[in-house]
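[Meeting: bench + compute handoff]

Bench side (C.D.) handed over the final construct sequence. Compute side (W.E.) agreed to return the predicted structure before the next meeting so the bench team could plan truncations. Sequence as handed over:
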Amino acid sequence: MKFKYFYQQFFSYISIIIIAFLVLSILFTHYVEDLVYQNKADELISYGKAMIKDIKRTPEAQNQVINQYSNVLASRNMSFSIFNSSGVLYAVGRPGPTIRGLTDSDWNQITKGKTVVVKSDYTRFGLGGVTFVVLPYLENGKFEGGILLTSPISGSSVMIHQINQILIYMIFIALGVSILLSWILSRIHVKRIKRLREATSLVSAGNYHVKVKSSNFDEIGELANDFNLMVDKLNTQMEEINSLESRRRQFMSDVSHEMRTPLTTISGVIEGLKNGMISEEDKARGINLVSHEAKRLIRLVNENLDYDKIRSNQIQLFREDIQVLEVLEIIQDQLLLQADEKNDQIIVDAPPELIVNADYDRLIQILINIAKNSIQFTSNGTICLRGRRGEKETIIEIEDTGIGIDPTEVKKIWRRFYKADISRTSNPYGEFGLGLSIVKSLVLLHNGEIDVFSEKGKGTKFVIRFKDQQ
């Protein structure tokens, strides 16, 4: 059975208010009754004590004192009787019936000189509708009797009844107001929850830009805050997913193009050799071309595998202290032939005592990739390999005097196959490929930093910082 949240809120508010009013009304009525009876009892006790005091002071005028108090109390709708040590009542000097209904405990208290107060008791003494007190009379510490003072409670009962009627009216008024307020509050809460529900439906339909009004006033407001944060994160993640999907498509396109070119070349040369379409003097050149393109394919596959291993943290570093000058001279020797082809000069500048803590093979891989790119984009220039000491770090710089990179494209060079499309159209110097993506990943794997500074037409400088091992 479905029970709407609105009615749950509404009836919970009403129930709490009704129960609270009933409890408060009962407690208030009980308090007022006790207060009324206590005041009446205090008044009777004060008259009784005054009467006993006057009798003790003028025992010879006992009857006169009793008659005076009888008139005074009669004017206040009160009455009294005197009883002896046996409990026999005397109504204004005349003997009456023995006090009936007192418990042994009550009588013991009276005989010991203690006052007994009976509140709202209608039948104990056969005097229905009265409140009374019993005051003992002691003579030289000996119990001689006492005074029984009574007062009708009809007036007090009427007042209590009127108070109860007023409380009932207040309950109905408060009930009406509480129904109205409960209805309004329930509508407000349900409306806020309904907005969250509608927003959730929009999110489930794929709208990740929806927002709901939030606050820190209560839990619903905090829930709205959390909902907005969730939507923001979902929106960010969807943008990342879309970006990754776009990059995946671009990557597949770039890889397909990169592989199609050497495969087309290899296939064409093989078909030419097979069908005798290539002359004997060109066969050696064709075979060299096939070998070159096959190596290019192998490099492309190896770079992809290497990049994926780095991204999936499958690369383990074996760090050691390495002399920077020795490494830079090795790079110089390995790339000397390529530099000569572009009429470039490689210069090494590093102090012999400079040490870097790194994985030797990966350091060579980093520097080879950067230096190759420098040679690739430099003709008739210089490539300078420098090493120097920084503050708690070793700095290696590779600077060229090549064509440089546009400032708007500097941050993009770390992407996989960035500029592959440019290389196919307008860039006569080739492409960045995967090399620089691998470089940055390896530097970060060393907890290092790499920065690029370039100006179009004036060259590029790569700065690598390796932090000292603690």
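W.E. noted at the follow-up: The CA atoms of residues 254 and 417 lie 7 Å apart. C.D. will use this when planning the next construct.
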